Amino acid sequence: MPEKKDTQRSGEYRMNLEAAERLTPDVIPLHRAVMREMAEPQDGLEPVPVWLILGFLTLAGWAGWYIASNSGGFAPDQYNEKAAFAAVSAEAPKPVDPMVLGRRIYNNCTTCHQDDGSGVEGAFPPLAGSEIVAGAPEQLAAILLHGLHGPLRVKGAEYNGEMPEWGSKLKDEQIAAVMTYIRASFGNNAPPVQADLVKQVREATASRSQPWTEAELRQFRLGG
Questions:
Q1: Could you name the CATH architecture of 98-219?
Q2: What is the per-residue pLDDT across 195-213, written as a single tens digit (0 to 9) for each?
């Protein structure tokens, strides 16, 4: 009898266990989503999107057009700053207006001869209407190159000042420019002076180390 009861109990236990298993939900479907998210990446080939290919081709075409339009024909001087600078430097400089240069240099003379060329009575002779300014240009160049000492008669008045030399400070072109300026300003109307004349006077008086006197100046002539 005990064996029969045990067998009956075992059968009931299995039936209860099977019934409990049928009532237990399947965990595999519940975990499938989690398992899919945690899956290891796998190698594979994915096709490139068509829009990406078209975008790349459009960008490449635009870049080619831009380079072709702004390359300057791929000329070397377009990409060489030194070559461009050399080309600009090789151009001949424009000549300076002697009247502009002469006015700039004359600013050094205004203390004595005044801005309007009227001079200072009894001390510094006027340039306006001066016989020396409008006279032989080599005499005026000689004064500027070596200076002037002692009395000097201009427009009937006598002046006894000192004119410093400018030959060691100014080039021939600068002296010619300031001479041109004062000979055409303050009511004067004398022709312009070229740098070659100043050069000739400089060479002809190269041995001179003292300023001129009026008597010496009146006798000075180029080649004479």
A1: Orthogonal Bundle (1.10)
A2: 999 999 999 999 999 999 9
